[in-house]
Design a protein that fits this description.
The structure holds two protein chains of two kinds. By secondary structure, chain A is an alpha/beta fold. Chain A has two domains: about 5-305 and about 390-490, Amidase signature (AS) enzymes (Alpha-Beta Complex); about 305-385, no CATH class. Chain A is built from 17 helices and eleven strands. In chain B, β12 (about 215-220), α3 and β13 (about 250-255) form a beta-alpha-beta unit.
Amino acid sequence: MANPPVHEWTLLAAAKKVREKEISSRELTRAILDRIERLNPGINAYITVLPEKAMKDALACDEALRNGRTPGPLHGVPVGLKDIFCTRGIRTTCGSRILRDFLPPYDATVTGKILSSGAVLLGKQNMDEFAMGSSTETSHFGPARNPWAPDRIPGGSSGGTAAAVAAGLCFAGVGTDTGGSIRQPASVCGVVGLKPTYGRVSRYGMIAFASSLDQAGPVTRSVPDAALVLSVIAGHDPRDSTSVDLPVPDYLAAAGQGVKGLRVGLPREYFEEAGLDPAVRASVENAIAALAAEGARMVEISLPHTRYAVAAYYIIAPAEASSNLARYDGVRCGHVTCCAGGLIEMMSRPRAEGFGAEVKRRVMIGTYALSAGYYEAYYGKAQKVRTLIRRDFEGAFSKADVILTPTSPTPAFKIGERTGDPLTMYLSDVYTIPCNLAGIPGISVPCGISEEGLPIGAQLLGRHFREEDILKAAAAVERAIPLPRMAPAMEA
Amino acid sequence: MEFEAVIGLEVHAQLSTGSKIFCPCSTAFGAPPNENTCPVCTGMPGVLPVLNRKVVEFAIRTALATSCEVQGKSVFARKNYFYPDLPKAYQISQYELPLALRGHVDLELNGGPKRIGITRIHLEEDAGKLVHEGNFSGAQSSLADLNRCSVPLMEIVSEPDIRTPEEAGEYLRRLRDILVYLEVCDGNMEEGSFRCDANVSVRPKGQREFGTKAELKNMNSFRNVEKALEYEIRRQLETIEDGGKVVQETRLWDAAAGITAPMRGKEEAHDYRYFPDPDLLPLIVEKAWVEELRGTIPELPGEKIARLAATYGLSRYDAGLLASSRALAGFFEDSLAVFGGNPKVTANECIHWKDAIAAGKLSPETIAHAVEDREKGVISATASKKLVELAIETGRPIRRIRDEMGLTQVSDTGALEETVAKVLAANPKEVESYRGGKTGLLSFFVGQVMKETRGKANPRIVQEVLKEKLGE
């Protein structure tokens, strides 16, 4: 078999080849930048590409290797970041007009960790505005497209990241997941996406959508690659009070372990969902069979409060967002308009002009939910539901070590298909949202391809801070069901 | 019908930590605009607050000093509103679950002791400051200075236990003294590090329900708080006497005009949409930490006044003057340790020289030596005053100055007898008049002896010798 082209290499392979000087970072980076130049206009996976900076950094990586410096785990490998992570001196838009000219004076902790691991930053990846969406259609910079079918969405909100990984426009990306924003795009783009336990990865410098749910995580072409990126970005950060001071395990080693005896919970309710596409069901059943064949044990479990998860999420997330997004008032950064009309107009006009329709919708929902007289009925109640969902998982994890579900009820839908119907759009996240509400880790791994040739993912959920369990289960699915990780349409 | 006022006070005290409550920026007053800022306190995208442990420590110490119950778990919430001096568009403040509850401050009033309840103590961050070019309504532009953003504030809310403006003033002074004693707040009202809002209503005496209250703001001194309350109580009483009704509203004190006036605008209609801040975990305070901090609470003003009065036989007034500063009271007791004697004399000296003491220009030894020399008749009261002044000026030991200047006083009866004899011999007429019954002339002879000895004689001894000689 011929060697795969450079852009198809896994992150681990690319890092090894650079480290062992089989290829220079300069060549590797040049190859990916050329590909971005050729393909990004069609896919729109990147909002900002940094060709000069990337080449300069690649040369510095090669130089450092020549000088015998100990390389970091991602040394010289070009990667991308969702445009939600602040990058010092590099425009960070969060997919919004209101931040289209924002140059952060600081790096996010994730940015800093990725850079100090030796990775070369290619650019900032497209996303739904302020991570609010499941299709990357709410981006001020235009929708990203699914490399498997350019008339379809790449999922969202980390759609640009998933599309870039699937199209070979980077070796890995870091996205964020508030209600499925890493896992759902990974699923519909046929790549791996991991949302770590809340508190595992620092949120400092990651532009907030819903602070109690947001978590950064890797998007890659293989499970071991995801394990490697997670080991780079995980860990306690004194600048994030919600990050947890626990040692970072060897995730890469975990991804290599077998699943014999692992108890895999199958939540009855998740398979009874009316909107579940038969092709998705069939593919997830393949994953179940694959795990069983590897020696895992299937147990039926129940997560009865899942049916309230989407409703609770669409109170909590917009409530927090309404407060988080209030700072964009045109006074200090981002989109500023003339203030001839006085104070109120000075603060409301940048918001009217700078925010898109979906952001405004959620800010209004959230403001309403927190208003005097409604707080208990909405926010208070949603928090109670959240507690019940967390207890559901606690109960389930007494019987199972991991939980297997579909990631998205359907494969990628067509661009424009659901933009007029926010409710249907919100239901794209029905399987991914409970995980964020409970704060547990979840991963999406490819497990099949639909008749139309669209990728399908399976989701594995684990106990708090037990990313090792879902990594090894996902790796077993990956080994058992070999699927192309590059979008075939891209090879044309 | 007789009416009484019901007053509750909300004090905002700036905690004197070196850094802000949620970021490491300096809290120093008077820095150039926006110098003491960082991405966190200016609310840049993606940044997160991290609670300053020192701030919590200061608030716990305050809670202990006011007999509050420190809560094992308290929660920071977001108070949401738009204003250009509030970069995040929300203020982080403890709301439903504050750090401390149910305490009190004891006052000594003319009518006897009175206990004022404390409802709660909670932590929050300050907002920035807007500087308007021109007057407010016609300003061409407004400038935002965010130095003060996230400076730590502690809000202390009293129960509505206060009945008169004087009680309010006493409560504030005592509370301020406690905070200054604890070294958690500099207590400076003019610079705004100790601010007070008041809730005030009136009701017929004996009625249990409260009347409709007004909230008073913008009072920047203790005196202004008292004056604003006096005015507002009178205004509410007159409103009722005229058959009107008090309206619930916020009123601003106008110190120049000496009146309160309703605050304009939509402030009243605010819905702050409080909710727990998801960026901060609930604040868990371990009992062991509270106990450790309890050990750091110094003797507080009330206790100190009582102890100084009882131990040294001082009046409550003098004890209060000494205890007005922890340093002064300490100086007083340090002086007594050097020379005991009559504590009242030392107390008077300390009170007299309190400014120089505060400025660090006097040592307890200096005062002790001055008092000792005077009590033993080595120097006169006049000489004592002069010597202390010189000690302040030169910083040199007071006894060395005394010796160099020859200011030692003659108390030796034998030595004085000679001078007295001389003075009597020189003034035969006056001696005759005195012996004829004009005893008022005694002071004349004393003056003459003092003049002869150039002030070095001990006037008490001079008198004794004179009386003896003139009686012969």
